[in-house]
Design a protein that fits this description.
By secondary structure, this protein is an alpha/beta fold. It has one domain: P-loop containing nucleotide triphosphate hydrolases (Rossmann fold, 3-Layer(aba) Sandwich), CATH 3.40.50. Helices cover 31% and strands 20% of the residues. The longest helix has 25 residues, at 250-274.
Length: 287
């Protein structure tokens, strides 16, 4: 066993190790920094209620819906392939938009039909995105390399990953003393995911009786898994809204409540007018 370090040398070593921990984002004080400085990855402000704190910790694996219908998704599940054929959904675009707008870098792997214009409309910073459209059978190598260089990796796999592939990617995204780690977002089955995002009750607006254009979509997004601390969390949004952004439903709820109150008042007045004269109930007078 070597001789112990002198006190002044020990202090220098501790200070140097502390600087290394801060630089690679694993020190406790670094978690409060921005994404570009090694901190947690931000969500879009309207998606923050889905996870405690409104941030995604490095090492988190998220499964998000692919843009595919229910029948195609069922066939993909039966065949062990990943649904969507590389077509990205608005939910995944919103995750990328929130991260890059907050200063994080994002790598996109396996999405030949990635919607650049839609992502930009949702607020994504395109200058902080790296795209690899079709890595083929080397998708795992591509994702593993990007995991060491960016803050969020969006991945579409050609088929369901096996146990060895799951372990390798989990190791690559997990922060430790040698790497900052990142967030992994996948659009297919992933058994070790910490957070699962799903969409419910989508409703498009804008089409009339054979006329018009689709303008906006109302949808409920639900979050489940370990990252939600055991509770299902839901948000109702316009995704996309009429201007291509993510819209809040608060004004719509207030309008619906006002319309409901107006209908109740009209019904009450109509009932009063329908009552014949002298049909009022006698009032009870207490002496």
């Amino acid at each position: 066993m070597g001789a112990p370090l002198p006190e002044e040398d020990r202090d220098d070593v501790i200070a140097r190790l502390r600087r290394q921990l801060v630089d690679n984002g694993t020190a406790p004080e670094a978690r409060g920094r921005g994404a570009a400085g090694g901190g947690d990855i931000p969500l879009h402000p309207l998606l923050r209620p889905l996870v405690p704190g409104g941030l995604l910790a490095r090492g988190t694996i998220v499964t998000a819906p692919a843009r595919v219908g229910g029948a195609a998704a069922a066939v993909a599940a039966d065949e062990g392939t990943a649904a969507g054929d590389g077509a990205v959904s608005y939910v995944t675009l919103a995750l990328v938009a929130g991260a890059t707008a907050g200063g994080a870098w994002a790598g996109v792997v396996g999405f030949p039909n990635f919607g650049i214009a839609a992502a930009s409309g949702l607020g994504a910073d395109l200058s902080k995105m790296l795209l690899l459209d079709d890595p083929g059978e080397r998708w795992l190598d591509a994702a593993a390399v990007l995991a060491g260089a960016v803050d969020l990796v969006l991945l579409h796999t050609p088929r369901r990953p096996n146990a060895a592939q799951l372990r390798r990617m989990s190791h690559r995204v997990r922060p430790d003393d040698r790497q900052r780690g990142c967030v992994l977002v996948v659009t297919g089955p992933w058994e070790t995911a910490h957070l699962t995002l799903t969409t419910h009750n989508p409703r498009w607006e804008g089409l009339g009786d054979g006329t018009g254009n689709l303008t906006r979509r109302r949808v409920t997004i639900s979050a489940t898994g370990r990252a939600t601390r055991g509770y299902q969390r839901d948000v109702d949004l316009w995704l996309p809204s009429a201007d291509g952004t993510i819209g809040e439903l608060r004004e719509e709820r207030e309008r619906e409540q006002a319309q409901g109150q107006a209908r109740e008042e009209v019904q009450a007045r109509e009932q009063e007018q329908e009552q014949p004269p002298g049909s009022e109930k006698p009032r009870l007078r207490i002496a």
